[in-house]
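Checklist before submission:
- one chain only
- standard amino acids only
- sequence pasted in full

Submission:
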Amino acid sequence: MYSTSTIGDTFIIPAGGGLTWADLSIRPTPTLGLFLLPDLVLLLAAAQGDRDPLFALGLLLAALVPVSLGWGLAGMLGLRVRPGRTEQGMAGEGVRFELRLQARRPLPALALVTPRGSLRLPALAPGIPTTFWLPWPAPQRGPVRPGPLVFVHPCPLGLFRLRGRCRLPLLAWAWPRPAARADAAGTAGIAPDDPAPGEEDFRGLRPYRPGDSRGRICWRTLARGQGLLSRDFAPAAERPDWIDWYRLEDTDGERRLSRLCRALLDAGRGDRPYGLRLPGTEITPGRGPLHLERCLIALARHGFSEVDPRGDRP
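Returned file contents:
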């Protein structure tokens, strides 16, 4: 995975908000029935036997129900959720979103519902921001938008379960899975008029230096009276490779992208600069992890127009 905060096209979205009454739903748990049934029996027994201590105890236990609900609501209301950085990933492996939480009251047992199950979040202290990374599956290439996030918080005594829905403009990109092996002839991208690998590129003329071989001396310039000059060549390692969509013969677009992804990963392990050509996109040659990330994201975004992170997942 790679963090988008390190490249030019950042996906950091400085937006967020707090949960309100409209975002919350209250669901009683089976524990509530187990709690109220003995209490009801206790109140009936106290009423029939005129036993004031038992009646007071029953009322006290019944009063714990609204107290539990009020305590849970006080913790969930005003919970602020803000998006942070985003880590892109490969299709089939998933992406990650950074979330920053801040609560007004202690929230020791907050959980987040995800497609992979419930994720237990760190305990939140009042007024102290807490950061965690949310993993999210990416089954296919393209944009990954989680949609509304559902936070779950059990009230004290476990009598109620509060669910809060929070919609954030989260967006990540998943690049294609690389092909099993790269087709060197189809993905190296060396133009037909380039010298073959292992040769050198002519860069121009430079003044003669003692020790230059006779084969590098430009005798024509000497005959014209322009002085003794030597031909200057660049090593083949400095000549960039072009990983080019148009040099592949596959008719299936996704297979092309998988082969290009394999070529990019292989090129990223080497020292030679490389560029990427896609329909409508050209990335100039470079090297390093940031350049590789930029190329991989270009593969992920190929074929997709501008994506609104607030929209629903396709």
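Reviewer check: The radius of gyration is 32 Å.
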